[in-house]
Amino acid sequence: MGTVDADGESAAWSPSYDLERWTAREGTGSFPRLPFRYPPRPGDARQLVRAALLAQVPEIVVNSSALAHPYLVPGASYDQLWTWDAYFTGLAVQEQHPEASAGSLRNLLAAVTGEGRPPSLIDASGVPSYEHVAQPVHAQWALAVLRLGESEPSWLPAVWPTLVAIRDWWDRHCRSRHHLYTWIDGAGSGIDNDRAIYGRPGGDVALVDMNCFHVRELRAMAALADRLGADGAADYRAAAATLTESINTYMWDPVDETYYHLHLPPRQGTTLQNVTWELPYKVQSWGCLFPLWTGVADHGKADRLVRSHVLNPDRFLSGFGIRSTPADDRMYNNLPMADPSNWQGPVWGLSTMLTCYGLARYGYRAEALRVAGRFVGLLAADLAANGTIHEFYDAESGRPGFNPGFLSWNLLALRILSDVENGDDPTEL
């Protein structure tokens, strides 16, 4: 039987993190800074953040003899080329550093194995890691590079077979029932401690966020095939449509008005009744909001998701952005932690800004501006008080979390407000 806290609530599932072990391993440099002394005036936030972040961008553009092309790193304690960090960072600075965005992708594609498995990262010495699988973003990344330039990059036709090999690898290893994709690892999805996958066996969990990424990849593969005159465009489009239908059929809960991750283990023996159902993991992270950003949700589902969850201050909406886990969840917490980084409550730049692009997509532009403005103001306050920005923030107080100097996808703050105002989206396919 679990313990009971002072309010009479069960503490059986309270969060536990070994901070002393982290401190012994990493030292004190990653500790959270002091809370803000004062916030900047709202009118100054955008200018302050833009000037400060642009000045710091050169620090994360790396030219190294260890890799063939310039690349992007997240900053702070991270000096590796991480797949989804570099993808979103490249979208944020594609006008200032297009060579580093394209170079990051080219370096990662060069490290894809013969069977098509992409590395999750490449370290500073040029060694790729396959401990976890990369997020499926390579085709949409190539499409972004293609659309930024006035002409087709000379290297793109040469990497098309690699992109096809990656797509085939996903289909062989991860496509499950109903054309949904399971996550191959028990961690490493990027949302480090999402309870649907963290510490659990890989291969049985279909994540909402990863399946939405796959929809984008299939759409991007179709667009690239059209552009290159390659085979397969119609098949990729059909697969994207089928997967979109499956997400909305099997992952959407009409009672709770949200999408849920699914448990898709191998079928066990039965008697006379056939199993015609799947069981959802009825816990949410901001990964369950991905159908907004990716356009997978129809307008009816999007409206219900936005009104019941995204803009609900008791759930995802914080005074500082979008919480990574709803505030009324029993495991909600804002503990400063790393390895895993904490996505069980804190506000992150990626959760906030992708959700804002999703809100704008479905007509909630004013709401997107307000939420994005809260996060830009949070960064401005951090810069004013501490001279830097951090990896994530306490959703209740705005207190910075680990890793001062973490830029990565936070650099989308350079453009998020103007993008929403002007109807732009650098992630659009």
Automatic annotation (TrEMBL):
Keywords: Glycosidase, Hydrolase. Residues 78-400 form the Mannosylglycerate hydrolase MGH1-like glycoside hydrolase domain. SUPFAM superfamilies: Six-hairpin glycosidases. It comes from the Bacteria. Belongs to the glycosyl hydrolase 63 family. This is Mannosylglycerate hydrolase MGH1-like glycoside hydrolase domain-containing protein. It comes from Kribbella hippodromi.
